[in-house]
Amino acid sequence: MNKKETAEIKKNFSDKSGFFIMERILTAFIDAEKNLRYHNINSCLTMPVEEHDVYDETLKKVLNTNVGKSFVEYEFPNEAYEEGKPQNILYTLLKSELKDEVVCEDFLNHIANNFVYEGPYAVITAYCCYTIRKKDKNDEFADGEDELYKYLITAVCPVNTGNDGFVFDSFNNEITKKMNTELIISKAPSDGFLYPVFSNRSTDINHVMHYTKSANKPNISFVEDVLGCTFVMSAENEKASFQNILKSVVGDDLDYMLIKTVNEKIQEVVDDNKDDTDKAVIDNSSLRDILTDVGLPEERVKMVEPVFEKVCGNAPLTAANIVETKTVLTSPGITVNIKPSAADKVRTSVVEGRRCLLIDIDDPTIEINGLPVTLN
After folding, report:
1. Whole-angstrom distance, CA of residue 334 vs CA of residue 336
2. Which of these, 8, 59, 344, 375, has the minimum number of CB atoms within 10 Å of its CB?
3. Would you say residue 142 has pLDDT above 70?
């Protein structure tokens, strides 16, 4: 799923859309010892509005449009569809429409037995339907061409006692320490998934979207042990890997202009592929092309393939994860943040024997600590 497809599902994740309905919700509580302590199936059609709204708010957080970072697509391996394997469990749950008590319990036990997580947590799963309006060649809605996208969306929410603090006791007219022993389910899920994937405005049962609250430190256990997929590198690790490759290949030729230009070319890759279902990637071949375009010597370009393989193996890097949205120049005691629109105004040079950072300022009036200063 790309950002556009995710945004479509998220936008229509509401009864007000006219094309969406959430039919049933499965809720469960799993304690710190991996025991399934409680589970229940509720119809959304008879649920109080206030309760329905809380479920909507929590589940909608899983549909994160930060695709490739917080919301990552995974392909199931071939064996995942075998009986008792993750894809088979999810597909069986989908076909049951959360009506089969035994199927729901099998799904929850699969999570409880395989998810590595410290502390208790709640599982909230909804069965939803979205009517996909198809368009003809004139970009108009075609009668009788609608498709029904049926999907499961799951949120795994941490459970904690409330924060200790002080409260005013109006009965005794005094301030006392608050003691809260109630287990409170967070409305901000730590993990979640969408199955099946909404790809090319259609259903794809062979892929799943994983949500993580922490893109830089995702829970690998959920991806590998619960969903049965091979974990891909986090956004933070991909960026670090790319920087290692660039440092090893470019060496002493690494300067401001080269870094800026390489980043601009990767941004072009992201922009050119923003509406594609498949994520835009940078592999050793595309990186070689980029470094050739920026004028890196051929002997350096030839180093890309072995260095890339040593750092990343055969796995390409996600372009959106390694592109920088701003340039940050740092030196002891100095940090300069530069937006892409102003990157051309910064240069490095040697002035009177000293290495300098030069900033072109079109407007002679600047601000220092919020105060206007005129440069003469």
Report:
1. 7
2. 375
3. no
